[in-house]
Design goal:
single chain, alpha+beta, RT_dom, DNA/RNA_pol_sf, Reverse transcriptase domain-containing protein
Length: 451
């Protein structure tokens, strides 16, 4: 199928010159990490920012006026990062190529990011069902949308089939010519603004640094830098036609950056929607090939939800099409099972959180209380809070397992004895109990999307 860009009545022809205040706010908001290519350490630059501010503002505005990204800022230092600690470090495919970029380049990218995002939001350019790298969107909003649709279908007595599509090295294979075409024809960028993006993408180089070993410089002829500020946003715009293609097949979908999930619902004995889903996957695969993206069929997963008595006939039909559904899958960090009760997910949270809490307890004698609390929030509370909006409506028994983790964390932090009442301790720490944290998250998300 051929996808067509939507009609755009407004264009972004140039970027707005910045003021001292804008650059000061941008620099203050960026991390103080220094790239080995920086002439000045970032912390030092921030400490003398008042003296350098006029020159930095001039640099940014000249870049905007000329539509040129400084060549000196186009080199990236690639430091391979193991995707998961459990993976074999000897297998190169287990690493993610994270770019460490010059600080001034990040300043330029951040200003462009702000102005481009404002334009995209003002003109409704974002795909409605793209939750990656958008204000007020996250993995949680993506999962809530999908799980809510599935639950509604289940309540109506329908079966849902969910397919999780996996892309291989998606950010690294983005074709620059196609990306510029998307920016011009799908987004509405032209003139000096489009020239700026051309300059940003062309003549980029990188070298790999591992310990004391450094490779030669290599030209970057495709892809957007992982670790850059603009990279994820540009990738979202690169993927804009995909939603149109999926919609044309009457298949539901939701994206989070390069993670795409598509799903259909059907009644007992109905096979048409499954056949449509398979046809849609074929079209997606072809679209990916034409756009220099690779669909990883080995990591693509399928799961069937709905009344247990009706699932088997759908599973049998999928198997006849050489598709093998699973009983549970990991979707954006959340373990989803066919009954959608999230028991496996809660069990995984419990196991991981108690493991980290046990290790934290071992060092509490040599760590200050404020630092101990930071460790607990980083390794324990973060696990309780991740996508906890999905836990709304679950049984008290399921949520109690998570409350036991929080109680144990509070006892470790305050040295409260096992049989002492924990509620006063939680109040003294200003920690909302797990149920109330879930309710607060739900209310917060609802407030963000209220018209």
């Amino acid at each position: 199928m051929t996808t067509l860009p939507p009609a755009r009545h407004l264009e972004l022809t140039h970027f707005t010159p910045v003021t001292d205040k804008t650059i000061e706010e941008v620099i203050s908001g960026l991390s103080s990490c220094t790239c080995c290519l920086d002439e000045l350490p970032t912390r030092f630059l921030k400490s003398v920012l008042t003296s350098l501010l006029p020159q930095l503002v001039q640099l940014v505005n000249i870049s905007f006026e000329t539509g040129a990204f400084p060549k000196a800022l186009k080199t990236a230092v690639i430091k391979p990062l193991l995707k998961k600690s459990s993976l074999d470090p000897k297998v190169l495919n287990n690493y993610r190529p994270i770019s460490n970029l010059p600080f001034l380049g990040k300043v330029l990218e951040k200003v462009i990011y702000q102005q481009l995002t404002y334009f995209l939001l003002s003109n409704n350019v974002f795909d409605t069902f793209q939750s990656g790298f958008r204000p007020h969107h996250s993995t949680e909003t993506a999962l809530i949308k999908v799980t809510n649709d599935i639950r509604m279908n289940t309540n109506a007595g329908k079966v849902s089939v969910l397919v999780l599509l996996d892309l291989s090295a998606a950010f690294d294979t983005v074709d620059h010519g196609i990306l510029l075409h998307r920016l011009e024809n799908w987004v509405g960028i032209s003139g000096t603004a489009l020239n700026w993006f051309k300059s940003y993408l062309e003549d980029r180089t990188y070298f790999v640094e591992i310990g004391n070993c450094v490779s030669d410089k290599i030209s970057m002829t495709c892809g957007v830098p992982q670790g850059s500020i603009l990279g994820p946003l540009l990738f979202n715009l690169y993927m804009l036609p995909l939603g149109q293609l999926i919609n044309s097949n009457n298949v539901s979908y939701h994206n989070y950056a390069d993670d795409t999930q598509i799903y259909v619902s059907l009644t007992a004995g109905e096979h048409g929607p499954v056949d449509t889903l398979c046809h849609c996957i074929e079209q997606i695969s072809l679209w990916m090939q034409n756009n220099f993206l690779q669909l990883n069929s080995d990591k693509t997963e399928i799961i069937v939800f709905g009344p247990q008595t009706q699932r088997q006939s759908v599973i049998s039909h999928l198997e006849s099409l050489a598709l093998k559904p699973k009983n549970q899958v990991r979707n954006l960090g959340v373990i989803m099972d066919s009954d959608l009760n999230l028991n496996s997910h809660i069990k995984a949270i419990t196991s991981s959180a108690f493991y980290h809490l046990k290790n934290i307890a071992k060092i509490r004698g040599i760590v200050s209380k404020p630092d101990l609390e930071r460790l607990i929030h980083a390794f324990v509370s973060s696990r309780l809070d991740y996508c906890n909006g999905l836990l709304t409506g679950l049984s008290k028994r399921a949520v109690r397992q998570l409350q036991n983790i929080q109680n144990a964390a509070a006892r470790v932090l305050t040295r409260t004895r096992k049989y002492d009442h924990i509620s006063p301790v939680l109040r003294s720490l200003h920690w909302l109990p797990v149920t109330q944290r879930i309710e607060f998250k739900t209310a917060l998300l609802a407030s963000l999307f209220m018209v």
